[in-house]
Structure formats: structure tokens, C-alpha cells
Amino acid sequence: MTALLARLPLFLILAAISCVAMMVPALHALLNDDHTIARSFLYYGLIGLAFIALIGITLSARPRRSSSDLANLLGLFLTFTLLPVFLALPFYEGLGTTAFVNAYIEMVSCLTTTGATFFDAPERLADSLHLWRGIVGWLGGMLMWVAASAVLAQLNLGGFEVTATAEPGQGGTRLDQFQRAGAAKRLGRSAVALVPIYSGLTVILWLCLVVGGDRPLVGVIHAMSTMATSGISPIGGLSEARSGLAGEMVIFLFLSFALSRLTFSSDTMTASRPGLLHDPEFRLGAALVIGVPLLIFLRHWLGALEVQDDENLSNALRALWGGAFSVLSFLSTTGFESGDWDVARGWSGLSTPGLILMGLSLIGGGVATTAGGVKLLRVYTLYLAGQREMERLVHPSSVGRAGARSRRIRRQGAFVAWIFFMLFALSLALLTVIFAAFGIDFENAVVLAIAALSTTGPLVQAASEIPIVLVEIEPMAKLVLGAAMVVGRLETLAIIALLNPGLWRS
């Protein structure tokens, strides 16, 4: 079986993993006497494995070709666009009360770790279907974690282009043992190194949530959603979880992994000064997590004098915690709301804090993490460039204080970061116009575009004054939403690299 998998392209390997994963909801449904759902997942999983095995046997007769990084990038694109068609089949058959396009976009949303759902009422889905949503989101997060190290970093994409010496889409000049290995070997080595960490952290978080009072199913889905930053929940969010404040504190700790790639890498700006405290991404993320809740908290006295609430220590602490948790959650593009978020909104007098949440989601988390958005490293690079330009206004002939590497980040790195930011802004504007053309009002069109491009699906419920009901939008608008999720997950520079014939010839 291992030899057959080695012959398969990345897309089919991921499909085989998905077929094996289907056995989990099949077994869960069988134990709960839901035989319709159990049969759907079991049959499709077995059919998929048989089909992939036949393809592997066919390819084994051909000379083996080494895969390239661009081929693996194409495999990622196919995974996010075509694989959800197969993933949606057992979900569609098991549910039986929705259109296939809804099931397909639901799986795109899960696999891209966006987490936007067409089923606002959690009770509409059986527990086994909720479990499948959580598993697909968890696999999507694991895929991006591995691919960031083995594929995107090698092509100087996904945020690595800011500090790399080569152009985006091309390999760098540093040739260490990891880079000299073939693309397939790099993927294997990254998977071996990262999957146990990813799985172990998920199990630890699950046990903590169960000890805190959550049902095992709720705990495991919330744990998988936290690690994948997908925000998928079988009960409508953390406010309904039994683990309460203790569970939120544990999730808060694990969400901090989305602020920095230093859990497994030190290849961008920390080689000379290792350590989490020297990582600019983590420091910028921590500043936002501390600063934004404090501004919301202080607004109780500074800008909301018309709000007449009983001021007490309990409400103050709950408001501060609700703000801090929700800020980190949306900054990491997870989208969980704290159970005390309503207290924070009431304390500050913010009736519709959607603009703050959308801004945090646009910034996003760290490079080479499961978080989406523009990424903290790009924002930090633009900040350095702006700081240097202001210094030059005062001292036009000055020389930058930092070393050559930092100066390069402020020049070429800032230029590439600005290009990405402009592409992101253009994509956001284009999507807003397209959604508006389908009859969606401007505010909701902006929310949908930001939610898709930043892979923060819960914005659909949290950012608007009235939650957006996705199932009611036009079918073509749903397909555009799914395409935007793929673009937000892979990023525009990666899509451009795939469409550039010169890179394929090089």
C-alpha cells in the first residue's frame, strides 16, 4: 500500500486519506443506530479507496517521475476545488434534505478552514455529520500546516516571499539538506515531523475540554476547530459549551499557536535572535490581543457615557476577558465568540462591532500557520517600511540602523508585501461587486467577501447586525463564495504562480 501511495500525485494521496477518514463518522453513526449515514460514509469510503488503488496499480507500470513544488501546488488547488465534490457525497446522502451545491460549498468551507456553514440550526445535522465537518476542517488545517513548510516555503509563497531572496513562485538560493531533497520527500518529512505534533495538541485540548465538562463529541470538534482555526461547532459556538470559562481559557492558550510559526520553524526573521519573544509576528499579535480589548474596555468611560450600567468588578473582568478572547479568535481567523463577548459589547457600548472583527480577520495570523488573512509578517514588514520612510523625511541622508537583511525586508520585502496587499484589496473589491450583482446588499457583500478571503466564516454571523443566511443566496453566488474561499486559502500570489507558464518551463 505504501508503494502504491508513493506513485500517486498529491491530490490522490489526500483523497485516499479522506476515504480512510470517512470510516470515523461511519462508525460513529453505526454506534448511534443511524444506519443511513453509516452506510453513506462506509460505501463512499470503500468505493473511493478501491478506485484510488486501481489508479495506483495503473501508475505503477509507468516510469516513476519526481514531483515538483509547482506540481504539489497544483495538487493543493485541485484538493480545495475537486476533492470537496467527493467529500460532499456522503454528507449529501446522509442529510438528504439539502441541495448538492450546499453540501459542496459546505465541504469547501470546511476544507479551507473557513468554517462558514449553510446550516445555522445545529440540530438540523446529526452528530455524525457534525463530526465529519470537524474532521474535514481538521484535515484541511493539517494539510496547510504541512504544505506551508514543504511547498509554499520552497516557492517563496504564503508569506515567505517577504524575507526570501528569490521571486515569489521560485526557489530560493539557500540549499540546505531539506531543500535539496525532492518535493515528495520534503512533503513526507514535513508530515512525519508535524502531524504528530498537530495530532498530539488536538488530543490534549480535547481531553482538557472534556475534563472541563464538554460532551466528548463537542470537545473533539472544538479541539479540531481550534487547531485548524476553522471555527466549526456542533452547538452554535462556545457560548453553548458546558466547559464555560475554563474551556475558553484552554482554547485561548492553543489559539496562540496561530500567531507564530516558531512552534516548528525559525527560517524567516529569527535565525539570529531565536525565541518567541523576538518573533515580530508574535509580538505584533500579542500587542493587538492586549491593545484592542483595552481600547474596547476603556471606551466604557471615554466614548460611551450615555450607557448607564452598574459598574462592578465582575462585569469589568468579564468584559475584559470577552474582548481578549474574541480578539485573538478573530485575529487567528477562527471566529469563536467568547460567552462574555456580549458583556464586552454592552460594557463598551458597541452595538455592532463588526468593523473591528473584520479588521482583525483581515490582518490574520502568522506565516506557516493554519490562520488566514493578510498575515502578521506582511503587516509588520509594511510597518517597518512606513517607519523608515518617516525617518527619511526627518533625515533624508540617513542610513538604516539595522543590518543588510532587515534593510532588504524594508525594501524588496515591503514591495512584495504591498503587491500582495493590493491584490488582496482588488480581490475584495471585485468580490463585493460580484455579490452585489447577485442582489446581496452592500454591507452583506463586504462581509461575505472578507469572510471568504480571510477564511473566517463565522464573520457571516458575527459581523452583520442581522446574520447572513447563506442558504438563501443565489446558487451562482454560492459558487463564487466557494471560489473566494479557495483563493483566500491559497492566496492570490500562489494562484498567479500556477497560471504563469514561464514558471512551469523553468
List the helices and strands and how they pair.
Elements: H1 2-7, H2 10-21, H3 23-31, H4 35-60, H5 69-81, H6 83-95, H7 100-111, H8 127-152, H9 177-180, H10 183-211, H11 216-228, H12 244-255, H13 280-302, H14 313-331, H15 341-348, H16 354-363, H17 376-394, H18 404-437, H19 442-453, H20 459-462, H21 475-490, H22 492-499, H23 501-505
Textual characterization of the structure:
The chain has 506 residues and is an all-alpha fold. The protein is 66% helix and 0% strand. The chain contains 23 helices and no strands. It has helices at 2-7, 10-21, 23-31, 35-60, 69-81, 83-95, 100-111, 127-152, 177-180, 183-211, 216-228, 244-255, 280-302, 313-331, 341-348, 354-363, 376-394, 404-437, 442-453, 459-462, 475-490, 492-499, 501-505. α4 (35-60) runs antiparallel to α6, α8 (127-152) runs parallel beside α11 (216-228) and α13 (280-302) packs antiparallel against α14. The protein starts with a helix and ends with a helix. 50% of the residues are buried. Residues 1-6, 173-180 and 267-271 have low confidence and may be disordered.
How many H/I helical runs? 23
Helix vs. strand class: mainly alpha
Q: In this structure, how is the largest beta sheet organized?
A: none
Distance between the first and last residues' Cα = 33 Å
Rg estimate, integer Å? 23 Å
Helical proportion, percent range: 55-70%
Give the strand tally. 0
Quaternary arrangement of the chains shown? single chain
Quick check: average pLDDT? Answer: 85
Q: Which H/E pattern describes the elements?
A: HHHHHHHHHHHHHHHHHHHHHHH
The proportion of residues in beta strands is: under 5%
Shape, principal axes of CA atoms: globular
User: Which blocks of ≥5 consecutive residues have pLDDT under 50?
Assistant: 1-6, 173-180, 267-271
